[in-house]
Amino acid sequence: MPDRALWRRLGRPLLALATLAAIWQLVLTLTGVPRYILPSPAAVANALFEHRGLLAHHAAITAIEIVAGLIGGILLGLTTALALARFRALRRTLLPLLLISQAIPLFALAPILMLWLGYGLGPKILMAMVIIYFPVASTGYDGLRQTPQGWLDLARTFGLSRRQQLMKVQLPAALPALASGLRMAASAAPIGAVIGEWVGASQGLGYLMLNANARLQIDLMFAALVVLVTFAVLLYFGVDAALRVAMPWQRDRTTPDQ
């Protein structure tokens, strides 16, 4: 029923948020935590309204960094996955480098990128790309190499070249695995951008949070965090909706909760 479906999509998340706010307020009431450590939900809501212009300006900067990093990371990761599946010599060289790259802490890269690229949007976009790249490349490559052998044999029977097999058989077969990587990328993209803003920036939600914290405007800091979380959630569900449209056969396999 439409009403029940609307309740599942909107009612339950709103109820969860209301419950979280009630628990938050209850903790403040029972413990007496000072406002400069943990502001009340009402104070955060008031900061969201009073500083809406400031928050919108910095949110726009962070959104540009996140979306640009997401697109760049997806394209680079998918290109890497296709290259790994297509060229064996490249696979032997690049796979160890991919694994080594994951041992480098992201915070260690941020100052280096700032030194090389300055304090503009570039380093933040690149930070988002770096954190997105590996999940997309690894899940895409895993999906490509797990294509059923029978499908490849049939493609060869029809005379498809190696490149045609990769693009017309292996890539569609890898979409479910790649979708998992894209969902992880969407949830991780804000992390890279905000880390870049924390290390060095003059605008963005990460910069605003640090600046508000230094001025003991904790309600504004929490308001910026709420905006960031809201954008991250919307980005995740936007990517998820796009994947459901692109793969209707996967959507049909899932049964909605009753």
Automatic annotation (TrEMBL):
One Pfam match: BPD_transp_1
Subcellular localization, as worded in the UniProt entry: Cell membrane
Parts of the chain that traverse the membrane: 59-85, 97-119, 220-239
Main location: membrane
InterPro entries in alphabetical order: MetI-like, MetI-like_sf
Topology in membrane: Multi-pass membrane protein
Keywords of the record: Cell membrane, Membrane, Transmembrane, Transmembrane helix, Transport
ABC transmembrane type-1 domain residues: 59-239
Top-rank lineage group of the source organism: Bacteria
Protein family (similarity comment): Belongs to the binding-protein-dependent transport system permease family.
Protein name in UniProt: ABC transporter permease
Organism whose genome encodes this protein: Salinicola lusitanus
The organism's taxonomic lineage, starting at the top: Bacteria, Pseudomonadati, Pseudomonadota, Gammaproteobacteria, Oceanospirillales
